[in-house]
Each structure stands twice: as C-alpha cells, then as structure tokens.
Amino acid sequence: MNLLKHSEVHKRRQRGFTLVELLLVLVILALIAGMVLPGIIGKAESAKAKAASSQISRLSMSVESFYLDTGITPSSLEELVNEPPGVTGWNGPYIKNSLLKDPWGQPYQYRAPGEHGDFDIESYGADRQRGGEGKNADINSWD
Questions:
Q1: How far apart are CA 10 and CA 42, in angstroms?
Q2: What pTM, to 2 d.p., does this model score?
Q3: What CATH code is assigned to 41-134?
Q4: 49 near 125, Cβ under 8 Å?
C-alpha cells in the first residue's frame, strides 16, 4: 500500500511542464516564425502592388466612361463618385469612393491632361514617395 501512495504522488508531480520545456518550445516557435514571417510579409506587399495596378486599371476605365458620357475628362477622381456641377450627361457614380485610395491608404495621384496620355493615374507605392524600387516602386496607368 505504501508503494501505491508513492506512485500516485509521483504521477501528480509529472503532470505539468517544467520551465525549461516551456522555454524550449518558445524558442522553437520563435525560430519557425523568424523563417516564415519574412516570406508572408513580402507576399503581402506584392499583393498590395497587384491590387494597386488593378485599381488603377479600373479607375482608368471609369475616367474613360466619364469622358464618353460627358465629353470631357474629369478634373479630379472625386468627380467619378460625385456629380460635378455644370456637367451634362454624367451617368455615375462610375466607381466606389473606397477605390479612390491606394492599398497603402493614400489618394491616387491624378493629372488631366497627363504627361503620358490624356490623363495619368499613379500610386507612389509603400514608401508614399515618388520614385523607388521593389515594394517602394510607383505604380501607374502608363506602364
């Protein structure tokens, strides 16, 4: 009977994890996260650049639709959402208000007349500054 009590006490002591075991698990998780997270973050930036390119294409089509309806190029992208005063033939909204900002939360740069065409639409990318390479590269309607 004494032996039975001793084994029950021994089993109760081994139910939890030691501090060393917990630390080892945390170190392993940190190593795995260190290898996986940079790849995920890189893919997220790439996805934002692709989304910006797609949104610029959609904005360009909306500007062209505005032109076909009204005979003039909009002076700002906001005119695609809200009817400008004194414009006849407006048949919008041509686009949702949420698409007036790029995936980094900045308004798209719009120029009419443009330097590269009838109009230019541009996002400055992740760094929010003109120019840059990689994830900071500008995304525009003329390339």
A1: 50
A2: 0.69
A3: 3.30.700.10
A4: yes
CA distances 31 to 20, 60, 78, 125, Å, are 17, 45, 47, 31
Strands 109-111 and 120-123: antiparallel
**121 φ, ψ (degrees, to nearest 5):** -125, 135
* Residue among 36, 57, 54 nearest 46 (CA): 54
pLDDT per residue as tens digits for the range 29-50: 998 888 877 777 667 778 888 9
Domain boundary assignment for the chain: 41-134
Q: Are 38 and 46 in contact (CB under 8 A)?
A: no
d(CA 137, CA 143) in angstroms, rounded, equals 12
Q: What DSSP assignment string belongs to the chain?
A: -HHHHHHHHHHHHTSS--HHHHHHHHHHHHHHHHHHHHHHHHHHHHHHHHHHHHHHHHHHHHHHHHHHHHSS--SSGGGGTSPPTT-SS-----S-GGGGB-TTSPBPEEESS-SSSS-EEEE-TTTTSSS-SGGG--EES--
The residues of the chain scoring below 70 in pLDDT are 1-14, 41-42
Report the amino acid identity of residue 77.
Answer: L
